[in-house]
From TrEMBL:
This is Phenylacetic acid degradation bifunctional protein PaaZ. Gene3D superfamilies: Aldehyde Dehydrogenase, Chain A, domain 1, Aldehyde Dehydrogenase, Chain A, domain 2. GO terms for molecular function: oxidoreductase activity, acting on the aldehyde or oxo group of donors, NAD or NADP as acceptor. Coiled coil: none annotated. It comes from Amycolatopsis acidicola. Belongs to the aldehyde dehydrogenase family. NCBIfam families: PaaN-DH (TIGR02278), PRK11903.1 (NF008868). Residues 474-484 have a biased composition (Gly residues). Residues 457-484 are annotated as: Disordered.
Length: 513
């Protein structure tokens, strides 16, 4: 039975709990309780114990702790990877989640040391004189909110999802209350066990709730934050929660997203950009079995090369071995559960009402070392559709599924991208600066992050699907309208910006006591 780390202790809850099956075999990995702690007490502990302990430290001390924690967790990679396999993750998938999550701690540790003052109030720019005589000025400052950061995560990134939210909150001086998705909460629980054992964090800086959310949102105040990663429905329900809305709880959501990748007309078959585009699409369809909020769902290609693209992508997809994620020869493991697989099948059914399946058969495919009855397996599934079809721009199949759509000219590509109604990540693959500039500028308002990929930057590129601690992670509209990461901006999100007005010398004394 999974436990929660609340009020300074590990705590279990009574009852049989709900079994959490291994994604590959269906065997029970753990159970999650059906009831949880008193959320009023959990949030009270964060506010009364965690917040003061964190705020007693300066930015540089908190940054150093993040780095030390990263080093400590690196010593447990084997154990984390072994358990991660049970979520359906291959070695490559686990690296994205586990190593990527630990990497966020190092980046925020480094940024905190370099970009923030050692301690004291965080000044936003310098004082600005308002009166004519110079006796009255304005100075904006940031101070940490005195509440808790409640962090609700999706099942697909049990480690990265927690750490990418925790690191900026910690650096700001705000305690975290983490609620992982039930499906894969056992991996989050293991990582938090090691974090607690490290003894590095101040008391109350991180609490973990492995239980249903219950009345958690009812206890939030205007000094708390709520960040949600998950489906659009969950994000919408929490955004409209009467306490969240009524108390103006600082809210951010990362929801689903129909990300696109645009191939430039210059990138004909035989060019490096054509190969980059094809390789990237295959990667995005197969890493984490396509269960990535940033995965490419819509491949927008010039009408003249659609057959070439489909031919090249299907040739590569034919080489993908699906099966037991513990087997090193397997490229793609199962989805996180049978119910996730069924959900993808349902979405696929809607998509195939308007699109044609050009690669993969969900009912007949090869499997290495696994049984399709027990695990959430699907093959990579490539579709092709008319650009005016509605479903590819509206339905997210959260699995190894992507649709190729033809476009006619840069303005059309931008218009089609915008039909996704707001995305986390997009990419333009082209070596034609004029095309990239026209399409990139048109796509930007619809995206939180845009990769402009070509032969010159491909060697160092981190790829379409990988948000970095340095980049915004979030997007407008359908993507949830939130923003995470993006460097120090995510730290500032946990702080109040206040305009101090007074004599310049008083303002200086307040900022640097
Ligand atoms: P979900 O069902 O919305 O669940 C997400 C999280 O919200 C889980 O921890 C869930 O807890 C919790 N939750 C559900 N109802 C809640 C409520 N009323 N109050 C508080 N918490 C609640 O989504 P999912 O199926 O896990 O994730 C898949 C979706 O997430 C996909 O659509 C994908 O696009 C999206 N996603 C987005 C991002 C991103 O960064 N934008 C990243 C990953 C995934 P339980 O698990 O205990 O129900």
């Amino acid at each position: 039975m999974l436990e929660s780390h609340v009020l300074g202790h590990w705590r279990g809850f009574e009852g049989e709990g709900r079994p959490l099956p291994d994604a590959t075999t269906g065997a029970e990995v753990a159970r999650i309780p059906l009831s949880g702690p008193d959320f009023g007490e959990v949030l009270g502990y964060a506010r009364q114990v965690g917040g003061p302990a964190l705020r007693a430290l300066g930015f540089h001390q908190r940054a150093a702790i993040l780095k030390d924690l990263g080093k400590f967790l690196r010593g447990h990679l084997d154990e984390f990877h072994a358990l991660s396999t049970r979520t359906g993750a291959t070695k490559r998938d686990s690296t994205v989640d586990v190593d990527g999550g630990i990497g966020v701690l190092f980046v925020y540790g480094g940024k905190g040391a370099r970009e923030l003052p050692e301690r004291g109030l965080l000044a936003d720019g310098g004082p600005e004189q308002v009166g004519k005589n110079g006796t009255f000025a304005v100075q904006h400052v940031y101070t940490p909110l005195t509440g808790a950061a409640v962090e609700i995560n999706a099942f697909n990134f049990p480690v990265w999802g927690m750490l990418e939210k925790f690191a900026p909150a910690f650096l700001a001086g705000v305690p975290s209350v983490v609620k992982p998705a039930s499906q894969t909460a056992y991996l989050t629980e293991l990582v938090v066990r090691r974090i607690v054992e490290s003894g590095l964090l101040p008391e109350g800086a991180l609490q973990l709730v492995c239980a249903p959310p219950g009345d958690l949102a009812d206890h939030l105040t205007g000094q708390d934050l709520l960040s949600v990663t998950g489906s659009a429905a969950t994000a919408a329900a929490l955004r409209a929660h009467p306490v969240v809305a009524g108390n103006a709880v600082r809210f951010t959501a990362e929801a689903d997203s129909l990300n696109c990748s645009v191939l430039g007309p210059d990138a004909r078959p035989g060019t490096p950009e054509f190969d980059l585009y094809v390789g990237q699409l295959v990667t995005e369809m197969t890493v984490k079995a396509g269960q990535k909020c940033t995965a490419i769902r819509r491949a927008l290609v010039p009408r003249a090369v659609i057959e070439d693209v489909i031919g090249a992508v299907t040739a590569k997809l034919a080489e993908i071995h699906v099966g037991d994620p513990a087997d090193d020869s397997v490229h793609m493991g199962p989805l996180a559960s049978l119910s996730q697989r069924d959900e993808v099948r349902r979405a696929l059914k809607t998509l195939t009402g308007e699109a044609q399946l050009v690669h993969g058969n969900p009912d007949a495919f090869g499997l290495s070392g696994a049984n399709a009855e027990n695990g959430g397996f699907l093959p990579p599934l490539l579709l092709r559709a008319d650009p005016d079809a509605r479903a590819p721009h509206a339905v997210e199949a959260f699995g190894p599924v992507s649709t190729v759509l033809p476009y006619d000219g840069p303005a059309h590509a931008v218009e089609l991208a915008a039909r996704g109604a707001g995305s986390l990540a997009g990419s333009v693959v082209s070596h034609d600066a004029a095309f990239v500039s026209a399409v990139g500028g048109g796509l930007a308002p619809w995206h939180g992050r845009l990769l402009l990929l070509n032969r010159d930057n491909a060697g160092e590129s981190t790829g379409h699907g990988s948000p970095l601690p340095h980049t915004v992670h979030g997007g407008p509209g359908r993507a949830g309208g939130g923003e995470e990461l993006g460097g120090i901006r995510a730290v500032l999100h946990h702080m109040q910006r206040t305009a101090l007005q007074g004599s310049p010398e008083v303002l200086r004394a307040v900022v640097s006591p």
